Amino acid sequence: LVRYSSSNRRNSRMSKVTIIGAGAVGEAIANALVIGDTVSDLVFYDVMKEKMRGMVMDFNHGQLFHHTRVIAAEDWLDTAASDIVIITAGVRQKPGESRRDLLGRNKAVMEAIVPNMAKASPNAIVCVVSNPCDFMTQLVAQLSGFPEGRVFGSGTYLDSSRFRSEIAKKLNVLPTRVHAYILGEHGDASVVCTSCALVGGIHLRDLVSDEIIQEAHHKTVTAAANVIALKGYTNTAIGFAVGKIVQAIVKDTNDIIPLSFSAKGRLGIKEDVYVSLPCVIGRNGVKVWDIKLPEEEASKIRASATVMYESAMEVLGATKA
């Protein structure tokens, strides 16, 4: 195992990424980054050292086929000066368990991780993937003390992909030609924003019925539970999603994607809560794209925020202005 220091980085571009959590999701994200040749140095940190070392060995046995240096961190020093930190650590969602049910169990995990991460990489951009994503993102932001734009969650980026794929199947078109956002909670209270949904320049509601939209949204909301019931966990699709997020940061694309972010003061939300909103993402982190929504949709997102805030108050100690 090679200890990492900034002096032996192979190049100066933003390319050191640390994944905290060497489980199925962390491995899937790493696969996306390595196959995409997105970063030069990839560090794993996990308390389960043996499993992490085995995973890193497996990656490095394939170095004939990729150009990423993959490292197993022995301690937080090996993660130091990371450009991007991806947090996937936490207990796994059980069959039949909601993401909100994980809140209390994963709070202690974040409290053990985040202060050490922030001390080792004080200038990092942090992407939180651990569930319940919105709550964990807010907790990481509180514990790290990082500026608002440098802490966000993967949020409903994957939900939006699921929804777009369902609509694409109905219309027999490429999912990339379906432009639609799922916003609000990464969970049961998510909201389909049909007012700005387009397929090939045509409004979605001019192409399909409300019943089809509702069916696609239902399949989106229940997708993770269905995969967990069959496979035991989800990891592949979220790996692709986070790979794209990291690519947007490294390449400074200024793409606009839905991410979990501080929602207070936006769309009339008064609570101190994180939900997914369209965000511009690039080398400096994220900032909200101030989308204008009809009151019908904005009110649903506000209702989602209120429900989440009430849950957050019990565990995270969120405060209302």
Explain this structure to me?
This protein is an alpha/beta fold and 321 residues long. It contains eight helices and 14 strands. The strands form four sheets. The protein has a six-stranded parallel β-sheet. A hairpin with a 2-residue loop joins strand 10 and strand 11. Helix 1 crosses helix 7, helix 3 packs parallel to helix 4 and helix 5 packs across helix 6. The radius of gyration is 19 Å and the shape is globular. The N terminus is likely disordered.
The SSE order reads EHEHEEHEHEHEEEEEHHEEEH
Q: Calculate Rg over CA atoms.
A: 19 Å
- Class inferred from helices and paired strands: alpha/beta
Largest beta sheet: strand ordering: 3-2-1-4-5-6
* Largest pleated sheet: 6 strands, parallel
User: Number of helical segments?
Assistant: 8
The beta-strand count equals 14
What amount of the residues lies in strands? 15-25%
The geometry reads as: globular
Low-confidence residue ranges: 1-13
Which whole number gives the mean pLDDT? 91
Distance between the termini: 49 Å
Fraction in helix: 25-40%
Outline:
By secondary structure, the protein is α/β, with parallel strands linked by helices. It is built from eight helices and 14 strands.
